[in-house]
Specification:
With 321 residues, the chain is α+β, with helices and mostly antiparallel strands. The protein has 7 helices and 16 strands. Helix 3 crosses helix 6 and helix 4 runs antiparallel to helix 6.
């Protein structure tokens, strides 16, 4: 109850976050830094919960490439095993004499059939081998159709291509203090226009002997920009209307403070609306630091340089800022 009394009573709560208030039901942060929800679904069978196709659209590139390689080698090993069970004598042109040599020839015949290359030296002559080869050829072109759709989906899916600073800061701001973090569009040509941002705050409080979360829509110095060609330092002034007024780092830790950030804008390259989420927990909020400028003039003065590696660079804040 003591913590609840320290929350600014002039702050307006936000009941539309889609997140529950029951503190006992939550574990860890609500939203991960990559924007995904920190949530695992249970209570239904796996096939109804999981979509392999959509999972492959969202996994990291190295996961995607690894899956394709494992699938390619795995499916060819499977068909190689079938040819081996049917008997290598049902394939004409096998010249290997040892078990390993014959197995290799069957494997490479499988890869040639799967990809419909068909070099020609080894070919099926038995009914069993012909049947398996026909099924494998169908599996091959269906697989390539699916992979083509996955590649197109991964490359063409509209994205915001935003980077967020590693930490949020609480530092002097216009004679008071402000909560701030920084974001930037990191891809060439992907300049967002008509960009809007929403920042929500969750605070764990005790009310009537029960722990629960309260949510606040934080007023910002600026909630939209026409074009996001440069970096954007998003600032929430900690004034008389702020729920953060008077809270120290220890208070934020005990209140399990977390910021939820949602950015929307129009991407000219995709000609579509895009959005991106992230969050900051109390452990990712630093006090009395300020961001170092990210942009500078080129040596010849003809253009501006935006240093992306300085996105999270900070220095000690001047108390008089």
């Amino acid at each position: 109850m003591a913590l609840l009394k320290r929350i600014n009573p002039f702050s307006k709560t936000n009941e539309d976050t889609g997140l529950g208030a029951n503190a006992a039901g939550y574990g860890g942060r609500f939203i991960n830094r990559d924007g995904s929800f920190n949530l695992r679904r249970e209570g239904n069978d796996f096939l109804h919960r999981y979509s392999i196709y959509h999972a492959l659209l969202n996994v990291p590139v190295w996961h995607f490439v690894s899956f394709l390689l494992l699938f390619y080698f795995g499916v060819n090993l499977f068909y190689t095993g079938l040819y081996w069970l049917i008997g290598p004598e049902q394939l004409q042109g096998v010249i290997g004499t040892t078990t390993w040599q014959r197995f290799k020839e069957l494997y490479f015949f499988s890869t040639e059939t799967f990809t419909t290359v068909g070099y020609g030296r080894v070919n099926p002559i038995g009914d069993g081998a012909n049947f398996v080869a026909s099924i494998e050829a169908m599996t091959g072109f269906l697989s390539f159709a699916i992979v083509t759709g996955l590649l197109y989906g991964r490359f063409s899916r509209p994205r915001a291509h935003l980077l967020f600073s590693d930490t949020a800061l609480i530092a002097p701001y216009r004679g008071k203090t402000g909560l701030m973090f920084r974001l930037v569009s990191h891809k060439d040509y992907h300049v967002l226009t008509d960009v809007v941002i929403q920042v929500n705050l969750s605070i764990l409080v005790e009310e009537n002997g029960e722990q629960l979360y309260k949510y606040y829509d934080l007023p910002l110095e600026r909630k939209r920009v026409d074009s996001l060609s440069m970096n954007w330092t998003v600032v929430h002034p900690i004034d008389e209307a702020s729920p953060l007024l008077g809270l120290s780092a220890a208070d934020m830790k005990s209140a399990d403070v977390e910021l939820y950030v949602l950015v929307r804008g129009f991407n000219d390259v995709y000609s579509n609306m895009v959005q991106q989420r992230t969050s900051y927990t109390f452990e990712e909020i630093e006090f009395n630091r300020k961001f170092i400028p990210m942009y500078r003039m080129s040596k010849n003065g003809d253009y501006t340089i935006l240093d992306l590696h300085k996105l999270s660079a900070t220095e000690a804040a001047d108390s008089q800022a």
